[in-house]
Amino acid sequence: MQDWLRLDNAALIFPAVRKTGWSNAFRVSATLAEKIDPVCLQQAVDSLRERFPSVYVCLHRGFFWYYLQKLKTSPKVREDAACPLIHMTKPELRECCFRVLYYKNRIAVEFFHALTDGNGGMVYLKTLTAAYLSLRYGFKPQAQYGVLDWMAAPEESELEDSFLKAAGRIALDRKEENSIHLKGTRRKDGFHYLTVGTVSEEKLKARAQEYNTSVTAFLAAVMLQTILDLAKHKKTRKWAKITIPVDLRRLFGGNTLRNFVLTVNVGVDPKLGEYSLEELCKAVQSQMNSQITEKQMAARIAANVKPARMMLVRIMPLFIKNIALKLVYHFVGESKGTLNISNLGRSELPPEMVPYVENLDFIIGTQATYFHNCSVVTYKGKVRINLIRNVEESELERNFFTRLLKMGIPVKVESNFGGGSLCIAQIAEWN
After folding, report:
1. What Cα–Cα distance (Å) separates residue 311 from each residue in 155, 307, 308, 316?
2. pTM to 2 decimal places
3. C-alpha–C-alpha distance, residues 76 and 287, integer Å
4. 70 in any annotated domain
5. What mean pLDDT is reported for the chain?
6. Pairing with 277, which of 18, 73, 80, 261 sits 20 to 30 Å away (CA)?
7. Which segment of 18-22, 61-65, 145-149, 226-230 scores lowest on mean pLDDT?
8. Shortest CA distance to 93 belongs to which of 118, 71, 72, 124?
9. Half-sphere exposure of residue 409, counting CA atoms within 13 Å on the CB side?
C-alpha cells in the first residue's frame, strides 16, 4: 500500500460533519474468560499493523479532500474509561483514527467511522483477539469466521472502495418524510449512558417468526412502538422511523474492510392513528423487503457516487465541500430517522477461540442531532442489545426492554451508571 489512502465514498462525509463534542464513531469489544495482559495486547496490536493498512491510519486535510495517512508506529493500548466512545478530537484523529482499550477481561476497539463499518471493525477485533490469544497461550486459531491470517499480506480487494463498483446507472431520488426526534436533557460533559440487554437468540427468533419478520424487523417494530408511545402526546407532522444499516457485501459480494454499508429508513405516520405491533411488523418488513434489493441499493449508491465524480465537485476547495456535505447531512441524513438499529447478526469464532471468549459487543455512538442509538450482535446463542444515549432521561430503554419482557422474552440488563444496585432494581421492576 502507498503511504496514503483516499477515503471511500461513504467516509467522505464523516470528517466534514464532525463538530466540537461529536464525531461519528463506533466500538466493538470481546469479553474474555481471564484478565487482559496489556503487554501481550500491545504486542498483538503491533503484529497487525502490516495486515490492516487501512486501519492503521490517521486523518489529514488536503486542499481538495481529506485523506488517510499510514501510521509509522502502532497506537498504544490504553485502559478503558468510564464510558464508551469518548469524543475523538481533531488532534487525536491527526495522530490515529482508532483506539485499542482494555478493562479487566475486556478488549475494546473504537473506530472513527471514516475507516470502516461495523463488519470491518468486527473482523479487526476478531483477528486482534486471535493474535492476543496466540501470544498468550501459544496456539494459532484458524483463519475463518472473520479471523484473518495476520501473518499474510493484505489482499487488494480488502482495500477497495466497493461503492464505485456497485453504483448503478440511475440515481435514486433521496426525497422522503422527516422523522420525529426524541428530546432530552443532554449531558454537557460527553458522558454516554449505556444499557445492555441480553436475550436468548432462540426466544427472540421464535417471537419474530410469530410475526413473520426477521429479528431486525421485529426489534425495529418494537422500537417504533416505544417511540410512538413516548411521542403520542406531542402534535407532529413527522413520521416515526428507524434507520437500518445494510451490509452491502451480502448483496454485491466482496471482502472489503472499508465502509460498504448503506442505510434504509423504515417507519409509519403517527397521524394515521395507533398501530398494533402486528401492523408495525408488517410495515417494517414490507419496507425492508422493497428497499433492500440489489437494484434499489445500486441506485441509492449512485446517488452518492455520481456527485463526487463530477469535475466541478472534484476541483472544489475542501472548505466549500465541507459546507455542502454538512447541508446534505442535515437535510437528507439525520432528519430522516429517529434512531439507528444496527444489527451485525450472528457472529462466530474459530472453535479454538470459543472457550476463551465469553461475549462480543457492538456499540454505535449517538448522532449529532439525535441522542439515542441501538446496536445488536449475537454470539453463543445470546443477543446483546446495546442502547446508548447522551441525555439524562432513561424512558426509551426502560420502555423498550419492558415490552420484550411482557412478550415473554427474559432480559438481563446491565448498565454503566448507578452501580449494580440499579441494574438489580431494574430487573426486579421489569419482571
Report:
1. 30, 9, 8, 9
2. 0.93
3. 44
4. yes
5. 90
6. 261
7. 18-22
8. 71
9. 26
What is the structure's pLDDT at 369? 80
Range of the structural domain that residue 136 is part of = 4-155
Q: What is the pLDDT of residue 431?
A: 37
For residues 83 and 108, is the Cβ–Cβ distance under 8 A?
no
Is-contact 349 32, C-beta < 8 A?
no
Cα gap 293→14, rounded to integer Å: 26
Q: CA–CA separation, 246 vs 342, rounded Å?
A: 8
Q: Which residues of 237-246 are buried (b: 16+ CB within 10 A; e: fewer)?
A: ebbbbbbbbb
Number of domains in the chain: 1
Q: Which residue has the higher pLDDT, 426 or 92?
A: 92
pLDDT greater than 60 at residue 419: no
- What local confidence, expressed as pLDDT, does residue 429 receive? 39
Note whether 163 and 11 are within 8 A (CB): no
Distances (CA, A) of 194 to 82, 145, 292: 11, 28, 30
pLDDT digits (tens, 9 = 90+) for 335-369: 888 899 999 999 999 999 999 999 999 999 988 88
Q: What is the C-alpha to C-alpha distance for residues 287 and 26, in angstroms, rounded to an integer?
A: 26
> What span, in angstroms and rounded, lies between the C-alpha atoms of 283 and 280?
5
Segment 252-256 long-range contacts (CB within 8 Å, at least 24 positions apart): 252/162, 252/165, 252/166, 252/294, 252/297, 254/157, 254/160, 254/162, 254/165, 255/155, 255/157, 255/158, 256/120, 256/157, 256/158, 256/159, 256/160, 256/161, 256/162
Let me know if residue 319 belongs to a domain: no
Q: Is residue 126 part of a domain?
A: yes
Cα angle at 411 between 408 and 417, to 5 degrees?
150
CA 30 – CA 133 distance, rounded (Å): 12
CATH code for the domain of 60: 3.30.559.10
Is 284 a domain residue? no
Q: Which residue has the cell 476478531?
A: 126
List pLDDT tens digits, range 163-210.
Answer: 999 999 999 887 888 888 888 898 888 889 999 999 999 999 999 999
- Percentage of the chain exceeding pLDDT 90: 72
Residue 331: the pLDDT is 67
